[in-house]
What does this fold into?
Amino acid sequence: MAWSPRIDQVAPFRVMSLLETAQAREAAGHDVIHLEVGEPDFATPEPVVAAGQAALAAGHTRYTPAAGLPALREAIAGQYAEHFGAAVDPRRILVTPGASGALLLASQLLAGPGDRVLMADPNYPCNRHFMALAGAEVDAVPVGPASGWQLDAELVAAHWHDATRLAMLATPSNPTGHMLDAGQLAAVAETVAARGGHLLVDEIYQGLCYDLEPLSVASITPDAFVVNSFSKYFGMTGWRLGWLLAPEEAVEPLTRLAQNVFLAAPTPAQHAALAAFTTQTRGILEERRAELGRRRDALLAGLARLGLAPSLPPQGAFYLWLDISRYSDDSQAFCRRLLEEENVAITPGIDFALQGGEHHVRIAFTTGVERLEEAVSRLERFLARQ
It folds into this structure.
């Protein structure tokens, strides 16, 4: 059967196949250490769960406006004001089914056939795929330690073409965990604006920072499109809730798109998310951020003992991008064998990087320090046999 040629633009997300294999090994009785999926071992904070249960009990199960509950949009705007000093009109915020819903809206509004989109390589693969499904051509710019694993202003200027319409950043990034500081963000914003383009910033891991203070491009320019999520910092992965912050003139067409594409984000999840901004929940989330910082440091220390620690430690998110070129030029085979021989599940770099992915893997420090240290011991055993 013939499918739309657009589906050929979407590569498989190999980590999901690896997760399935890891879960099958676990079901067969193996002690698998899961470092492959971007989901820490924390439950949703109890105040958020309680708010969701209360919403269900109160019958809050009907549609909300397409752009989301007004109270939730106001709470998100308050977050920008309190933590980033950015005055954001709540009307500029559209609540979406996960960050994926926000990316879908942004890609359909900003990119189309004949357009070119700049983004870093490596990057979260769905970012490329959303733009490709909109008909745009993605220019994936290889980045490395020299630019802090980020698409900086110099790279944007060097790779901008006449047909380039959009530059997309991710800070902190998936898979490298690296960030742009305020000066670097401002420089990119100025470079894009000078060329008449749009700037889209993925801030999904915004609250999870260890070496730099969390920041938002919203405090630098009102013209950027910003994608964020309740999944990562707020611990609400399965609730499927995110948001898109957009310039004022884009709100009406984005609302039209939302009305037609997904109608509205899940209503109980929106009511639950109102509790994500309380003082009690913030305390829980900050404790978890500190714990993730300890996990990062433990993993870095273990890898340093093996001579594998990256030259630039991750500054945010909960990932480490590891160069395995000393041992393998096939990251997929490396990950498969590590799982089969030592029951440690990590992600092949080819999921994220078009260039160099075969020499890298992503490790998610989403489990406790003791398990991370055990994973490093198993990795050491595995590498000794290479």
In short: The CA atoms of residues 310 and 322 lie 6 Å apart. The mean pLDDT is 96. Residues 5-43+284-384 form a domain with the Aspartate Aminotransferase, domain 1 fold (CATH 3.90.1150.10). The first helix runs from residue 14 to 27.
